[in-house]
Design goal:
The chain is α/β, with parallel strands linked by helices and 309 residues long. Helix content is 32%, strand content 28%. The strands form 3 sheets. The chain has a 6-stranded mixed sheet, sandwiched between helices. Strands 2-1-4-5 form a 4-stranded antiparallel sheet. A 4-stranded antiparallel sheet has the order 12-13-11-14, covered by helices on one side. 31% of the residues are buried. GO terms for molecular function: ATP binding. Keywords: ATP-binding, Nucleotide-binding, Transport.
Length: 309
């Protein structure tokens, strides 16, 4: 795959000295889905706004499809579709006219077949004659996506696209995103729903305090940083972990009737056999055991803990 979006030493400072972006470097490949995760105030929206020309960078450079966002603004911006967090639509316009108008803003010729296809994929075709003010919040967010796709962008930014959307609509949107990726559209997704990143992303980027902490293949990240927990259930509750088991660094479950052991699945020895032997030697009787793989959310929390939000 070739690089479609290149960000080099991008910085954004505001009056008063606040640095929202601190030398961001990022290369995004054509046709991938990159999930950008970060706590509130991490710089996600500032980064997207700068790439899309809404905010001017203090320094650094960004190219989209080889076009500089400053010296070749029109060409670069034409390649980008943006679905913002905020729902800001003309309430008395119809769905159809709203989407048509967005296409016209980019100087694209009329293409009724394309507009119809977009609206049908987003389950908006039956609402095409409805005024925006008549739509639910979830449907309005779908209109934002339709607007962003109307000029056939090659890079699509989805800034918290499913915020306030019910579970059913959220799953529908995931399917739309997958179809877009299959058609060759590059997608950069910011989300507070980490399960979205875990379900859809090819790569995961983590940003905190205006800096990119890492960008890595999702599967590699989870293999490298993911851990497993072994939960040992006991037949009788205990008040404290026996001293004889101190070397295993166990955590006592809230109910007092389970012991939790964290281990690295990639290690040569997990220590599970020794643990179970020592549990039996301590006079504890097991009723069951279970394991849990750490999720992307666990990894994300570990990465940003201690960072400024």
């Amino acid at each position: 795959m070739s690089t479609i979006l290149s960000i080099s030493d991008l910085r954004k400072s505001y009056a008063g000295g606040f640095e929202a972006l601190k030398g961001v470097n990022l290369e995004i490949e054509e046709g991938e889905i990159l999930a950008l995760l970060g706590p509130n105030g991490a710089g996600k929206t500032t980064l997207i706004s700068t790439i899309c020309g809404i905010t001017t960078a203090t320094s650094g450079s960004v190219t989209v499809g080889g076009h500089c966002i400053e010296t070749e603004y029109r060409a670069a911006r034409a390649m980008i579709g943006l679905v913002p967090q905020e729902i800001n639509l003309e309430p008395f316009e119809t769905v159809l006219s709203t989407v048509r108008f967005s296409r016209g803003l980019f100087g694209k010729p009329k293409n009724e077949a394309l507009i119809e296809d977009i609206l049908k994929k987003l389950s908006l075709w039956d609402k095409r004659s409805s005024q925006i003010k008549e739509l639910s919040g979830g449907m309005k967010r779908r209109v934002l996506i339709a607007k962003a796709l109307s000029h056939e962008p090659r890079v699509l930014f989805l800034d918290e696209p499913t915020a306030g959307v019910d579970v059913e609509l959220r799953k529908d949107m995931w399917e739309v995103v997958r179809e877009l990726r299959e058609s060759g559209v590059t997608i950069i997704l910011t989300t507070h729903y980490i399960e979205e990143a875990e379900a859809m992303a090819d790569r995961v980027g983590v940003i905190a305090g205006g800096e990119i902490l890492l960008v890595e293949e999702k599967s590699d990240l989870m293999a490298r940083m993911g851990k497993k927990e072994l939960q040992v259930m006991l037949t009788e509750p205990i008040s404290t972990v026996p001293a004889a088991l101190a070397e295993h660094d166990l955590r006592l479950g809230a109910d007092g009737q389970s012991l939790v052991y964290t281990y690295d699945v990639t290690a040569e020895r997990t220590g599970i056999t020794a643990l179970l032997n020592d549990v039996a030697a301590a006079g504890l009787v097991l009723s069951d055991v279970a394991t849990r793989q750490s999720s992307l959310e666990d990894i994300f929390v570990d990465l940003v803990s201690g960072e400024d939000a």
